Amino acid sequence: MTTTTDAPQAARPRGMTTCPECLGGARFANCGACGGSGNFSDELCARCGGAGQVELEGPCPACAGSGLVTTAYVRIADAAAYAAGEVVAERRHGDDAGEGEVWAQTHEGVTVYGLAAYGFLRERLRTQPRVLVEATQVPGHLGHPMPVTAVRVPGLSLLLSGVTWGYTGTGPNGLAAILHDLGAFEDHRQALGWVAARPQFSTWSLLVVRAGNSAGEAPPSSEASPPGGVRP
Ligand SMILES: [Zn+2]
Ligand SMILES: [Zn+2]
Asked: Which ligand lies nearest to the CA atom of residue 28 in the structure?
């Protein structure tokens, strides 16, 4: 649906776009009385005044009522729509992967499922003042350690299959979208540049401080060692 908006393009902060889930922060749904037709018993519907739609209470969860989302959100929402009806994240149990709730991406190695898994927990992760994103090693199939990207807040971890590159991870664009959406970078291009400089086979970490939209690199975890040698 094409709509006009009050927010002029020039006024948008860098890396942000109009929220596709609402109109200026307000969400609407079909009127329950007339089913969206605007008419009730051949008269104008009293509930919605003939508009057929009613405004929903509460701020839009995608943009927190601001009417603006990161451009990364569009990628994430597309991924979620693509994977709608599928299981994109599953609970992982065990003491190896972190405290509290630990979720892991299903369908390993597919960027779209990594983004959809992030989308599944997005609201909970984005409401935290500090988010730690790191490449870490957790035991995978047959108990062998494998590198994954972890997004962590107290009591909640999301493990995305693989790290930055190639067919085993979110892919650089997937990880860049997540970092941009978390507020670590102002736009996708800046995030992608940072991701491209990460080591492929050793651990790294990034502490995202959401207040003020700034990011700071956490001290690299000690004893970081490449898991499987160097590929050409
Ligand atoms: Zn109505
Ligand atoms: Zn919205």
From this structure: 2
